[in-house]
Here is the input.
Amino acid sequence: MANQYPTLPRNATTPHFRRLLWRCGFSGSDAQIAHYRALGLHGAIENLLAPKSPAKLTGPAPKVSGHPIDPINVWGHDTLWWLDRMVRSHNQLEERMTLNLHDHFATSNSGVGNTRHMLRQNKLLRSHAVGNFLDLVTRLTHDPAMLLWLNGADSNKWAPNENYARELMELFCLGNDPGLEAATFGLWKQSKVYAQADIHAAALALTGWRYDWNKASNGNAAQRENPTFYDSSWHSTGSKTIFGHTGTWDWQDVVRLVVRHPNHAPFLAWKLWSYFIPTPPTKSAMQMMVGNYLSSGYNLKPLLRVILRHPAMYQELDAPDLVKGPIVFVASTLRMTKQSITEDSWAWLLEAMGQVPFYPPNVSGWDQGPAWLNTNSAHAYWQTTDYLIRSTVGDPGQDSAAAAVSRAISALSHPWVSNGARTKLEAYAQSFFDANNVVSGGKRVLGSHERVERQRVLRALILAGPDGFLS
Here is the structure.
């Protein structure tokens, strides 16, 4: 049976392409948006779904104080390394999906304690960002960062650790929220939910992977990056029953059984949809996502194509409702203002905002949506905005209030600004003029310092005001 996809909106306008790149990447400059518009909406989606390998990175390489970054050895430089890829990569959906998968398979260096392993996992996620999910889970199961994070390293037949087996089912592949049955229109079934006995049996089947601590510290480059190995003498070889299937299962069998479980496809489709569209999927969308994913042999691209083509992706272009997390906020603003990574401030600023790459708060990942909007984060957003625009504002010359606002919006590559917000921005621009003008040559004018200050404040209000949080 051929894959099925929604019909694309007709007569796509520039806002359609801005929406597409905001949610499938990290926005972009006006020129970058124009590049995708020239492809047409169908062509733009297909271009995003077909990342070039390796990704082309355009612009200056990241530096701090004029020196190349050192993500392995210097605090915060791992954040800079990935942030740079978000800003410069031509493979925008690949990079955004890498971030989504990092949240989905939330692994934190706070528990791993090895930046080499975290960077290795990051590259693994990127290589499967629009690829085969079964292959990704297979590789993640013996990924050194994951083995350390969820205690799979040295789990053995005498003392099997259940952490990875539990999260593989609950968070990564199957879900256990009874509300999923209604949310997926019955494609996910409460009656099929796994049991504790399945977790225990899977933990036994997963035993055998070990971690060579000496090689991790003292081995060659390849050994330090991945010091794991399989020891069959540590594996539980007896018969095990998982989801009603009995056999002498090993770790690869566990992955296959989980991914082939009837609750897997609807759970994953529902979860991935939520990263792109804040409203629930329709019944037809769920059916298309699940059908395409299963018929393709667990490939993500046919599932993602449903999301990117769906009318819900382009609803309310004049009132966006997807909240930007801090990482998206910073990366997108750097792209919109055509800046590169030249300082290490982004690491501690993201920490203050509550979202640091490689450090999700727990195995459930970051809270999404309105959870980012609170009194604690508001100050951090404003502080970060100051850093984002501080070197981008020159003397704009004498502008009317309306022209000053238009200039600020244009300088930020036209982010969404509601009509109500624009009216308030123009009122502010006029009040600033009224309070700070001087008479020169018989005319009321702003001095150079005041012109720069007004423009700086306008850009800050656009970025960190209520509209600036939405995409």
Remarks:
- DSSP finds 24 helices and eight strands in the chain.
